[in-house]
Amino acid sequence: MSDQLSSTKIQCPYCWEVIEVIIDDCGEDQQYVEDCQVCCRPINFHLELDDSQQIQVHVFTDDE
Questions:
Q1: 15-24: string of b/e by CB count within 10 Å (b at 16+)?
Q2: How does residue 44 score in pLDDT terms, banded at 50, 70 and 90?
Q3: Contact of 61 with 45, CB cutoff 8 Å
Q4: Cα separation, 48 vs 40, whole angstroms
């Protein structure tokens, strides 16, 4: 398992801006909230490992 930070681009589910975020590639599923750098609304992040051990990043609004 790796324990490192990496960056990825996501699209804010509120303002639709593409922003770069830092994720912790700790080798396990995670859920957390981080504010959008553009509109400041809370984005729910769900990080999960796929079958090939790659991190998949999913983002949602508060009401999803």
A1: eeeebebebe
A2: very high
A3: no
A4: 24
- The pairing of strands 18-25 and 30-35 is unpaired
DSSP-derived secondary structure for 25-54: E-SS-EEEEEE-TTT-PEEEEEEEE-TTS-
How many of the other CB atoms lie within 10 Å of CB of 12?
A: 19
Q: In this structure, what token pair is assigned to residue 55?
A: 């991190």
- The Cα 48–Cα 20 span in angstroms is 18
What contacts 40, CB < 8 A, 6 or more positions away? none
Q: What is the pTM of this model?
A: 0.84
